[in-house]
Here is the input.
Amino acid sequence: MRLIIMGPPGAGKGTQAAFIAERFGIPAISTGDIFRANVSQGTELGVEAKRYMDAGQYVPDEVTNNMVRSRLAEDDTAPGFLLDGYPRTVAQVHELDSMLEESGRSIDAVVVLTVDQDEVVQRLLQRALEQGRADDTEDVIRTRQQVYADETAPLINVYRERGCLVEIDGMGQVDEVTSRIFDALDTTKG
Ligand code: B4P
Here is the structure.
């Protein structure tokens, strides 16, 4: 399975990505996690990414695309992969298309989690208490939501037109959402 999971900040992408990856035996590749790992290791990439992440803005496409290109070249992606949080812009969609075309691969399904905006702000404020992420303050969360609406929401139509969109209600308990995703993906696989 080659999958993408999308949704606004706090929709539960990272949470559900772990379950999907385990179920299908594929790596979950989270661009947010890779950036955070670089930030905590103080790499050049981390220093650059941190400036954008702390402000709730997207890291420039070129930086993100190069990072994903080298990750998708690793051997563990041969049986499939789940991209969590990538692509996030139309330019990233085009770049991903060419990366996949070069390696003779394609995406099977794009899972989109739909959620209530105010509810997810509460989730993220709760995460701020538990994990202390720098981009989980209320102001930055609202900025991230706006950036998502402007830059990423239009991608839903791109994948709908390609016939691979799987829309999932992301509200409710974590395990309820997981079941909805598994049911939908089982149907998709036929
Ligand atoms: P991400 O790490 O992708 O951040 P996110 O949108 O907050 O999603 P995350 O996966 O962490 O949270 P989730 O919804 O699972 O990106 C962070 C930043 O990195 C971006 O703002 C950007 O700067 C940069 N970046 C990443 N990718 C990029 C790209 N492609 N291009 C440019 N820049 C990029 O979960 C949120 C919380 O909700 C968790 O605490 C979870 O426990 C909780 N939760 C989940 N499901 C729940 C449920 N059903 N009920 C209650 N709580 C739930």
Q: What stands out?
A: The pocket of BIS(adenosine)-5'-tetraphosphate is lined by residues 9-15, 30-32, 35, 52-53, 56, 58-59, 64, 85-86, 88, 92, 123-124, 127, 135, 144, 173-174, 177 (CB under 6 Å). The chain has nine helices and five strands. The longest strand covers residues 109-114. Residues 39 and 46 are 4 Å apart (CA to CA).
